[in-house]
Amino acid sequence: VLDIIKTGDDGSVEALNCSWTHPLFAFGSITGVLGICDAHTIRVRQKWTYIDEDDAQPIGITSLCWSRYKPIFFTATTKGSIVAWCGITGLTGKSSSGLLTEKTPLKIWWGHKAMILYLTLPPFCKSIDDNNNNNDKIEPFLCTASDDTTIRYFAIDISS
User: Fold this and answer.
1) CATH number for the domain including 139?
2) Distance CA 55, CA 93 (A)
3) How far lies 104's CA from each of 12, 84, 101, 132, 157, in Å?
4) Over the Cα atoms of the chain, what is R_g?
5) What is the pTM of this model?
């Protein structure tokens, strides 16, 4: 063991994945805790809990995958949704002073009727150079497998 990161969470860590574009990795737990870690210092940079706006309860994370082209990661949840997050800090909401302070998703997709068990992105690059810091690209879709006995494809369009 080279090092240990304590997540500070009582729930099991269900998801872990490394960024393709930055020296970062992210994790997600069954109790909804998400974290972005620095791969050089092996330290947590940001940590937050994903809370359901309807019932104010944490939403469990079951799978996590980074875009190969942008510092964005996608999480699958126990409620059957897919969530896109800013991978640099996780922060997207602005305070009244204009500073980024809130852990707001970039986008949420719905479609499954049960917990999502696995999330993956397609390997559409022609070479390894196509993966590195290409600001004009993002994967066209993502795939999920769920307890509702379906595999679903979702188009990725962060702008809408």
Assistant:
1) 2.130.10.10
2) 20
3) 23, 9, 9, 25, 17
4) 15
5) 0.85
| pLDDT tens digits, one per residue of 4-34 | 888 888 889 999 999 999 999 999 999 999 9
Q: Tens of pLDDT along 89-125?
A: 655 555 555 554 568 899 999 999 999 999 999 986 5
Residue type, 18: C
d(Cα 156, Cα 130) in Å, to the nearest integer? 18
Which amino acid type is present at position 10?
Answer: D
Domain count within the chain: 1
Count CA within 13 A, CB hemisphere, residue 145: 4
Structural domain boundaries enclosing 21? 13-155
